[in-house]
Amino acid sequence: MKNKKRALILGGGIAGAEAAIAFRRKGFEVELVSDRDHLFIYPISIWIPVGTMKYDDASIALDKLARRHGFTLTVDRVTALDGERRRVTLENGGERSEADVVVVALGAAKIKYPGMEHARSICACPENSLILKEKVDAIIARGSGKIAFGFGGNPKDKSAVRGGPAFELFFNLHHKLKKLGIRDRYEMTFFAPMPQPGARMGQKALDAMDSMFRANNFKTRYGKKITGFDEGGVNFEDGSRLESDFTMFISALDGHPVIRASNLALNPSGFIQIDDYCRIQGVENWYAIGDSAALEGPEWKAKQGHLAETMAVNAAHNAAIAVKGAPGEPKGYQEHLNILCVMDIGNGAGFVYADGMKEIFFPMPIVGHWLKHGWAHYYRFSKLGRMLRTSGV
């Protein structure tokens, strides 16, 4: 048993859960530390506010994953990281320094604006999806109103943007209002500080969205820097204002506070600097994956769930080579950089792919919506080992 090595995975999100599974497959003893007891599947949470999915169906109990894959689950909060001493501190569990490998998958914080309590996000804490459902129900009960959805950018790290879910929830709410026969009573506006939100998806996807916006009488407010929110709307740097009775806003990602307070090498936004093999600079056998990591690569790169899972699998592969003497060559994440999504609109979807060399977009009326629902079942069942699964899908 001399080759039995221990891996400590920090974070129970999409990246961390995949890392725990991948490291077990490589023969490591694995402890997963998560500040919540379930894996929340953010890509399908867009359906919770509009009532077509329940919260429990967008989550997987981490203790079930732990039993299925044979790792240890510790529900606790990471309070400090010390790369120099190779030490992790937990709120209740104290200091940990015995692991052979540490994987940081703590996710990220969000850029804060004044009045953020008036603009709930579908990509913040999972419970926000339930608060948004209450707000959807309230605006419908009201019978009419102004709705404003949008997302922000991080000028220090353009990869740290979450725009897709804002579009998806916007389209799904439109579809719900239309089914209820009351869509014409609402003014729906999409806003963002960049002149072409969603540009990294490619021109074909942008053209398709522009057509959809025009066909459905959506208004836009693009290219204006956001300065804050209040109960009645959105404020912009030029002094203009967008009136809203219901505002949903996805702030850009920023460095996690525990990571920012650490002595790890960080980029200007507070993400951990890694090499192509997900190794943290200057700390042997420590890795960072998912939203915690600073991505290197082309200008259009973006932090996405499928990339986070690829990074998790690669980190396990590379760590097995480094500390267990496993055969093989290290695997990098940069060759897997692309923009990939199925953008749901409630009664269909659009397939989007772009990698800097080519861009693909094709609409999938009706069937696309149910394909994404199918993917949701596939993700849950495959994570629980009930069907075969390819990481990053």
Q: Your description of this structure?
A:
- The protein has 393 residues and is an alpha/beta fold.
- The protein contains eight helices and 24 strands.
- Strands 5-2-1-9-20 form a five-stranded parallel sheet, covered by helices on one side. It has a four-stranded parallel sheet with strand order 13-12-11-17, covered by helices on one side.
- A hairpin with a 3-residue loop joins strand 22 and strand 23 (348-354).
- The longest helix is centred in the C-terminal third of the chain and has 20 residues, at 305-324.
- The chain is globular and about 65 Å long.
- It starts with 5 loop residues before the first strand and ends in a 10-residue tail after the last helix.
- The mean pLDDT is 95.
